[in-house]
């Protein structure tokens, strides 16, 4: 009896466990099916960044490499021989035109000037005496021979000419004396001193006392491809052309100037034309000998169709861009591009202002892909 009762209760418990497990499994699978039925069918949207195609004025620049040089550069040399008594400048000093640079011993030249002046005084006394004699011969009339009168008149003329020669000698001696005071012929910055005080200098020596470079204004020499020469000349004849000077890596703007000269000869070896730009350089950021990058503004395209550089993709069939339609689906647009400057590219064909293009995430996109677009910071700023 005990065995039958025990078996009966064991069967009831097993049946209850089976019924409870089936119910839980039914509930679990049913709830999972409901969750799966709530999910959308098809692949998830591809996350990308988009930007709008813009219509704006687009400046056309020619970039190149240039070298800064002094607007004027002068090697200051002595024009007389002598000993340097004084050096009146400091290396690296900015001087004005007419500032004293050096003083050469003036005593020999002062003596020569005094001698020339004394010679003139002597000749003036001789001329005065000759004029008196000429007056006496003239008053004597027929008592003085014509030869005596003519000879005396000639003597007066010779002494008059001698005084004129004395004036020239005095002027030359004064000039030589003035040359002993060496002054700055231009305003600019002086370089290293080439001679020291106490040295003997000679006018025939090629080595100068110092070099002065004019830095306000200052010049930049750079090159441009010869195929742009016609456009440059045409634009320069119409209005001044702006030139920007950047650091050699092209990252930092140093100064803005204008194009002043197009060289008269094309370099046939390199196929380039040399150009000169002038900068005010009030802050002295440009320095003679500095290597820089240049940008010459040739012209500006009006109402150009412009996209970020990142929108332009390279394919087997050429250049293309992914445009995003109103249904958030990507489509391929074959494009034709123009100039590309400062992260922007001109679109000549294939896109229109107002179109939306993908600028990041293209590697995951296929034609017809649904995209989840995030607007670029530039477009977000425009919308604010």
Automatic annotation (TrEMBL):
Keywords: Cell inner membrane, Cell membrane, Coiled coil, Membrane, Transport
Domain of life: Bacteria
Domain Multidrug resistance protein MdtA-like barrel-sandwich hybrid: 72-212
Coiled-coil stretches: 113-140
Residue stretches making up the Multidrug resistance protein MdtA-like C-terminal permuted SH3 domain: 303-361
Residues of the Multidrug resistance protein MdtA-like beta-barrel domain: 217-299
A Pfam family hit: Beta-barrel_RND
Principal place of residence: membrane
Protein's UniProt keywords contain Hydrolase: no
Gene3D superfamilies to which the protein is assigned, alphabetical: 2.40.30.170, 2.40.420.20, 2.40.50.100, Helix hairpin bin (1.10.287.470)
Annotated compartments: Cell membrane
Domain Multidrug resistance protein MdtA-like alpha-helical hairpin: 113-180
SUPFAM superfamilies in UniProt: HlyD-like secretion proteins (SSF111369)
Family: Belongs to the membrane fusion protein (MFP) (TC 8.A.1) family.
Name of protein: Efflux RND transporter periplasmic adaptor subunit
Species of provenance: Tardiphaga alba
């Amino acid at each position: 009896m005990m065995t039958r009762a025990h078996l009966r209760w064991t069967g009831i418990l097993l049946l209850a466990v089976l019924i409870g497990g089936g119910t839980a499994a039914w509930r679990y699978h049913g709830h999972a099916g409901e969750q799966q039925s709530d999910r959308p069918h098809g692949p998830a949207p591809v996350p990308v960044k988009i930007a709008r195609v813009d219509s704006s004025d687009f400046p056309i620049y020619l970039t190149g490499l240039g070298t800064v040089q002094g607007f004027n550069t002068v090697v200051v040399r002595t024009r007389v021989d002598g000993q340097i008594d004084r050096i009146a400048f400091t290396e690296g000093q900015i001087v004005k035109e007419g500032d004293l640079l050096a003083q050469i011993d003036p005593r020999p030249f002062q003596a020569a000037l005094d001698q020339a002046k004394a010679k003139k005084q002597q000749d003036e006394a001789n001329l005065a005496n000759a004029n008196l004699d000429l007056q006496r011969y003239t008053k004597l009339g027929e008592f003085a021979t014509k030869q005596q009168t003519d000879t005396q008149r000639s003597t007066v003329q010779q002494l008059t000419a001698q005084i004129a020669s004395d004036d020239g000698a005095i002027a030359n001696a004064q000039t030589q004396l003035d040359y002993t005071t060496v002054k700055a012929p231009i305003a600019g910055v002086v370089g290293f001193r080439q001679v020291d005080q106490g040295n003997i200098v000679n006018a025939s020596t090629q080595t100068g006392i110092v070099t002065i470079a004019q830095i306000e204004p200052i010049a930049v020499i750079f090159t441009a491809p010869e195929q742009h020469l016609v456009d440059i000349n045409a634009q320069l004849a119409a209005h001044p052309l702006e030139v920007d000077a950047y650091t050699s890596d092209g990252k930092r703007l140093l100064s803005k100037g204008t194009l002043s000269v197009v060289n008269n000869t094309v370099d046939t070896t390199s196929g380039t034309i040399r150009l000169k730009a002038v900068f005010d350089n009030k802050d002295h950021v440009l320095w003679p000998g500095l290597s820089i990058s240049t940008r010459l503004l040739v012209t500006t395209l009006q109402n150009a169709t412009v996209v970020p550089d990142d929108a332009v993709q390279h394919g087997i069939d050429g250049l293309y861009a992914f445009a995003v339609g109103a249904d958030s689906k990507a489509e391929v647009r074959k494009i034709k591009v123009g100039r590309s400057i400062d992260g922007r590219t001109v679109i000549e064909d294939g896109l229109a202002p107002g179109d939306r293009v993908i600028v990041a995430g293209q590697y995951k996109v296929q034609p017809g892909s649904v995209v989840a677009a995030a607007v670029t910071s530039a477009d977000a700023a425009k919308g604010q």
